Structure prediction request, 83 residues.
Amino acid sequence: MDGAPLRVPQGASAAAAVLLAGADAIRETPVSGAPRLPYCMMGVCFDCLAEIDGTANRQACLVPVAPGMRIARQRGARVAFGG
Ligand code: FES
Prediction:
């Protein structure tokens, strides 16, 4: 995550990869900046929002990892296209 290479089991989600990496957060909330980590692992809580391969607001628990995938911490709200 955030540029560090990581080996993960085939079929794992991007959220699982972040947890396996021992990251202290996958995103920071827009209002308070509180750190968050994946929680429900099934698309309900949205605490796994991350920037995956340059696209923000991806639910990392629903995205299978792929070779070369880049997962970065999402800081605050997603920046709108062109904004
Ligand atoms: S971990 Fe809850 S939506 Fe992804």
Remarks:
- The chain has one domain: 14-75.
